[in-house]
Amino acid sequence: MCCLSIECQIFIKKIIMKTLKDMTFFERFEADILCGKKVITIRDESESHYQVGSVVDVSTFETGRYFCQLRILSVEPIAFSSLDEDHAKQENMTLPELKSVIQNIYPGIERLFVITYERLA
Ligand SMILES: CC(=O)Nc1ccn([C@@H]2O[C@H](CO)[C@@H](O)[C@H]2O)c(=O)n1
Predict the structure, then answer these.
(1) Per residue in 55-69, pLDDT tens?
(2) pLDDT tier for residue 1 given thresholds of 50, 70 and 90
(3) In the β-sheet with 40-43, what is the strand arrangement from edge to edge?
(4) Which domain covers residue 58, as residue numbers?
(5) Is 94 labeled as catalytic in the residue annotation?
(6) Is 91 in the pocket of ligand 1 (CB under 6 A)?
């Protein structure tokens, strides 16, 4: 039995549902996303819940500033060791750059997910 009021439970559920539909990016990637040079993101398991076909509101990680909406096209598992030039190209980076960025964000994590998206106007 939950001791919170029904209003409180609904409020918490709304926050959770909104959080699951949001995505954040580091500010330095905003320009590449907006001009279509960066068409994937690579995330760990905690961010692998995005539903294919859903539309997510995107904001900056640093300040929470909204900057676009993306439609999720696919969510596929990928091992860190299997990342290749094709992934790097879709990130608008070289492969060593991409691996270094990911190692900084997700140190020691092998099990990752490639999320492909399209920007909505
Ligand atoms: C802010 C936040 O919550 N998390 C992340 C996680 C990842 N990324 C970018 O996705 C690609 C592969 O990981 C690279 O381009 C990353 O820098 C990001 O911008 N923000």
Answers:
(1) 999 999 999 999 999
(2) low
(3) 22-25, 55-60, 66-79, 111-120, 40-43
(4) 6-119
(5) no
(6) yes
Q: Could you report the predicted ipTM of this complex, rounded to two decimals?
A: 0.94
State the CATH number of the domain containing residue 73: 2.30.130.30
| Domain membership flag for residue 34 | yes
Q: How far is the CA of 1 from the centre of ligand 1 (A)?
A: 39
Structure tokens at 119: 């920007």
Q: Is 41 in the pocket of ligand 1 (CB under 6 A)?
A: yes
Closest residue to atom 14 of ligand 1, CA basis: 41
- Residue 50: how many CB atoms within 10 A of its CB? 20
Domain annotation covers residue 1: no
Tell me, what's the pLDDT at 75?
98
Domains in the chain, number:
1
- Whole-number Å distance, alpha carbon 39 to ligand 1 midpoint, is 12
Q: Decide if 39 is inside a domain.
A: yes
